[in-house]
Amino acid sequence: MASEELIYMPNTNKNKKANMNANMNVKPKTDDWHTYLLELQERTYRIEWLSSMADQQIMRERILPMLQQYRPRSSEDMKLILPIADIEIRTHREKHAFLITGYISITLETAGVAHPDVLYAPCKSINYRSVEEPKEEYSESGPKDAFTESLNVNLNLIRRRLMSEQLHVRMLTVGSGKLPAAVVFMADNRLTADRLIYQVEQSSIDHPKALLDISNFATLLYNGKHTFFEPFEFTELPLQTVHMLENGKVALLMEGSRKAMIGPASFEDTFVASSDLFLPLPQVRAIRYARVICFVFSLLLTPLYVAVATYNFEMFPLKVIQTLLISRHNVPFSPFVEAFMMESLVMVQLEAIARLPNKLSQSAGVVAGIIIGTAAVEAGVISNVMLVLVSASSLLTLASATVQLRNMLFLLKLPSLLMAMVLGLPGICVFWFLLLSRLFVVRSLDRPFTLFGFNPMSRYFKGKG
């Protein structure tokens, strides 16, 4: 006689039939492990699942009615009648591994004896947010959709924009949590994709801990272990991902992550924004020239102030030196301490704003900047010139095209100030020499991260990057 109600069996197994087959059934060790016995005359179907991972509605609508109607005699018969794709038939030992990934196990028992094979049907519960506007990479032109935490949704967003037979997807798992991931690439870039897949597999072996996000996983890759610069790009825009794929790059997507990792990356790509795709070529050239200038001067303004006020004041016109000395007349700190305090305060302010809700962050940033800056000048803690230079340097930094470049600039300002304090203008030159030397060493997927040759830079300024 068919049972119409769900019978839940918690951790303690009280059923005699289950005790008879204890050697073939996995003992539940978690409270969200549930069992339902469907008894149909001489056959019993033991259905097990994790309520935190499986969708019980699929079981009620697709599995139970088919079992009650056809009463299959084996796992192979169940596979034929169930309207579910990707069904697996394995042993009892693999039950726990399947259940934690959202599968439902069905074990057929005849006269109290369980069959040796178990049917596993995918019924994963999917609870993700819908496609929304991007949170970090704002673009005034183009589509307004961004990646979500669902791997299948993200792949759909890419394929909708690139309906080509040359687009390939390689599925794999990463970490001890066996998170599903996908490497997306064009057919012409198979070697690059194989190189990324190899590094992903090696990192999963060397670092088997559970992963939090794709950016966390990127630090475990071979190229990202011992470098200050990130050798991969991260984007939340499907359009930007498709653009990179068409330009010979590969993308890594991961379940639970709302960003795509792009490689091989180059230093020139950090100056490219998604809005460049929708602007005329003359405007793109002008904007990219401006971004390079902003990058250089964001690292030069405050170190130049420290160098001039400390060592090299004789290299500048007398009126400039007089303005600096007058503004610093009542300041009790050295130029380096003055600049270090202001730059550190800007970094703390940006970090605090990032932790506030969007409605409060903008107003809090403006109010904090005005109040702190005005109060510091009136109290004689900093000079007017320093306040202007730090504000301009922060604006130049925030003009960066990518979040990675923006964060890198804020961190590079402190060592540049230190070199300017120690050696003056020669110290700034030494800092740029070390910076460029390090950039030339970094590699992304075994390719140089920085190429300052004529061809790469000409492609960048022509708007082809």
TrEMBL record:
Transmembrane segments in this chain: where?
292-313, 366-396, 416-441
Q: Which GO terms describe its cellular component?
A: membrane
Q: Does the keyword Repeat apply?
A: no
Q: Tell me where on the tree of life, at the top rank, the source sits.
A: Bacteria
Q: Which residues form the signal peptide?
A: none
Q: Name one GO biological process term.
A: spore germination
Q: Which UniProt keywords apply?
A: Membrane, Transmembrane, Transmembrane helix
The UniProt record lists the keyword Transmembrane: yes
Identify the PANTHER family for this entry.
LEUCINE ZIPPER PROTEIN 4 (PTHR22550:SF5), SPORE GERMINATION PROTEIN (PTHR22550)
- State the similarity comment: Belongs to the GerABKA family.
Would you tell me the protein name for this molecule? Spore germination protein
